[in-house]
C-alpha cells in the first residue's frame, strides 16, 4: 500500500469507510455491493473535486471485462468439480483452467487494452478458488445502489438513510427491493 498513488488510496478509504458506516450481518453481496458503489461514486466525486477528468469508459470497460473473465473461470471450475475425476486429474484440469484465464487475460491486455497492466500482479500471483470468490460479490447490486443514489438526487445523507431502511428489511424483502432497483 505504501507505493499506491493517491487515487488508489482514496478508493480503499471510501470502500472501507462505507463498511464502517453500514454493515448487514451475513449479507456479503449487499455489503460489498454497497461499499463498491460508495467507492466508485466517492472516487468519481473525489476526481471531480480535484479537477481530474472522469475515469474513461475504456478503464471501466476493462474492469468489467476482467471481472467477466474471472467469473467465466469460476463457472468452468464449477463444471469441472461436478465431473467424477480422480484428484490428480482434477488438480491438472484446475491448473489448466487457471492457465487459460491467464492466457485470455494476456490476450485482452495486449490486443484490446493497449498493454494496460493494472491486473498483472493479481493474475500472476498464486491462484486458488478463494481468490476468485469475491468477484461478483463486490458488484452484484452496484446498479441498484446507483439507481437509489439517483433517486435521492445524489444526496449522501438521504442515500445512507435509504440504505439503512434496506438493511433493516428481512433478507428476501431486501433482495426483492434491490431487484426492483436494478435497471
Automatic annotation (TrEMBL):
Matching InterPro entries: Aminopept
Pfam families: Aminopep
Keywords from the UniProt entry: Aminopeptidase, Hydrolase, Protease
GO molecular function annotation: aminopeptidase activity
UniProt superkingdom: Bacteria
Record protein name field: Aminopeptidase
Organism the protein comes from: Pseudomonas syringae
Source organism phylogeny: Bacteria, Pseudomonadati, Pseudomonadota, Gammaproteobacteria, Pseudomonadales
Amino acid at each position: 500500500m505504501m507505493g499506491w498513488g493517491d487515487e488508489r488510496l482514496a478508493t480503499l478509504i471510501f470502500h472501507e469507510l462505507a463498511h464502517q458506516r453500514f454493515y448487514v450481518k451475513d449479507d456479503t453481496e449487499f455489503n460489498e455491493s454497497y461499499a463498491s458503489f460508495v467507492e466508485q461514486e466517492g472516487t468519481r466525486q473525489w476526481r471531480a473535486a480535484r479537477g481530474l477528468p472522469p475515469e474513461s469508459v475504456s478503464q471501466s470497460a476493462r474492469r468489467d471485462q476482467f471481472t467477466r473473465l474471472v467469473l467465466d473461470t469460476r463457472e468452468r471450475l464449477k463444471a469441472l468439480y461436478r465431473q467424477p475425476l480422480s484428484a490428480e486429474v482434477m488438480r491438472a484440469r484446475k491448473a489448466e483452467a487457471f492457465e487459460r484465464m491467464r492466457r485470455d487475460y494476456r490476450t485482452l491486455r495486449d490486443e484490446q487494452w493497449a498493454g494496460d497492466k493494472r491486473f498483472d500482479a493479481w493474475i500472476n500471483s498464486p491462484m486458488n478458488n478463494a481468490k476468485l470468490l469475491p468477484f461478483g460479490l463486490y458488484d452484484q447490486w452496484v446498479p441498484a445502489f446507483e439507481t437509489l443514489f439517483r433517486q435521492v438526487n445524489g444526496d449522501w445523507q438521504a442515500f445512507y438513510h435509504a440504505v439503512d431502511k434496506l438493511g433493516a428489511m428481512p433478507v428476501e424483502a431486501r433482495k426483492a427491493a434491490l431487484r426492483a432497483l436494478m435497471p
